[in-house]
Every structure is written in structure tokens, then in C-alpha cells.
Amino acid sequence: MKHILITGAGGQIGSWLVPRLRELYGEANVVATDLRDLGTEVTEAGPFEILDATDANALAQCVIRHRVDTVYHLAALLSATGEQNPKLAWEVNMGSLEAVLEVAREQRCAVFTPSSIGAFGPDTPKNPTPQDTIMRPATMYGITKVAGELLCDYYHARYGVDTRGLRFPGLISYGAPPGGGTTDWAVDIFYKAVSEGRYTCFLRSDSQLDMMYMPDAIDALVGIMEANPDKLVHRNAFNVTAMQLTPEGLADEIRKHIPDFRIDYDVDPVRQAIADSWPDRIDDSAAREEWGWGPNFDGATMAADMLEHLTNTD
Ligand code: VAH
Question: In the chain, which segments carry CATH 3.40.50.720?
């Protein structure tokens, strides 16, 4: 049975991934870690430790103590936050990944590291964006994602560390909110539609980006780490997507459930420039062919499920 450690367990992905992995592999076999205490729901449901993922010694002790053989490394600063403090973004994103890979090399752990469509830049073909293509991102976040992909592939080729990754699109979920991303509008719009019936979007109405509903992202996170390594031509990292959304298009979808919902726009030039440098639609055929990736939710079913959960909170 796997023994798993998750860094950044309190984030948007981690808050979904911890309970799913505990269901799959046993609560005692999944150690949730984060810089801050996550409260009883996580800490009482299984092992939890306060951990700075850039501290290789503390990470190594945690891995040894819990006999960890697989690390899901989620701790990172996202794109918009990264542009506010590029130096910190580099230090956190690369410092933590370096620590995780060195501990994984010494302790023989497999490692999952998320990449992103943010790893692509303005010179990358936008529609479709191939699996293997130009990657010259215009953000520090994107630079850490490309450098991270290269470092993960290096640790696999040089030291045999089982490293795997996914280039996630914008992720949409309820529960723990996203923190400082350019795609956060696709989550915020649902909360504001339910609470206020209207939303002011920080991107232009026609800004198309790849998106995915969190249940599909969690399936992908489990699927890639369960995949037969002999079938993997790529490792770090696979393009994966589920839908392409624009703010106006998602507003139309929400109006099917909340007819009076209104959207208006107050464009943030920083996040608009980031979004404009990213793909319109990525090609995820390599993930589909090499390990059977495929989403279950599209824009319509995702919107219906999000609104059902946000309006049925007791
Ligand atoms: C961000 N949510 O906006 C992240 C993600 C594709 C976007 O990488 O930075």
C-alpha cells in the first residue's frame, strides 16, 4: 500500500486531494502537511504535520517517520501572486521542489509535481498548443513551472526518481478557494452569482482559457501516479484539459440556472496580460494515449454541479 505525503495540503487542490487519497489508500497512509495548521477536519482524519516544504531536513525526517514512498508536491505560489513578488515565487517554488527531489532521491520516493498551462508563453502556438512545443513563459510562475519540469525530468534520467507531472489548466472547485491565480475568476464568479447575483470580472469577456473541474483534476492526479511507467513516453509534464471557457460563455451557462445573473468587467491589466500569454486550447492527446486520461465534466455539467453545491450548503 502506498504511503503518501502531500505538501501544500491546505490549498485549492490539496483540500480535495487529501480526502480522496485517504479514501483510496487508507487514512493512516496519507500525511497532510502545510505551513499552517489546517484545523480538525484534516488533522483528525489522518496524520498531519506543520511543514515548510523548502526545509529539506524537516521534509526528510517526515518522510522517514511516515515511511513515505510517494510525494504529491503542491506547495507553490501561483501566477498573479508570483508577479507581485517574483523573487519569493522563485525561492518558494524552486526551493521547495529542489528539497522534495533531493529527499525523493535519497529516500527512493516517487514525486508528483503540478505544472500548468502557465508554462507556455506568447510564442507558443495557441490553438491547439501541442504537448511538445516552444515554452518561453512571460511570468515568474511560468518560469518556475518550466524549470520544474526540466528538473523533474533530470532527476528521473540521472537518478531514476519516478517523477511525473501534469500541466493543469484553470481549476474550478468549491471549498478551499484558489489563492492568487489568473484563473480565479472562474471560481469567484460562482460564489458571487449565488451570494449577489452579479460578478465583476478582472479579465475581458472573450478571454478564452483551458479549464477543468476539480473532480476531474483529482482523477488525473491519481491516474498519472497509478499509470504503468512502461507506457509513459512523457513524464514532466502532460497537457491535460477538459473545456475551454470565456467569462461571457460561463456567464451564459450560469444564467441557465440564475436567469437574472449579470456580469460586468473591470479588467486588471496584469492578469489580462498573463491570460493573453497563455494558450486558447491545449492538445492533451498524449495523456489520453499514454495513460488513459479523459474528463467527465464539461462547462454545462460543471456549472450545474458547482451551483448545486454552493446553493445547498446548510
Ligand atoms: C494560476 N490557477 O492561475 C493557476 C493555474 C492555469 C492557471 O496555473 O496561476
Answer: 4-169+213-239, 170-211+241-313
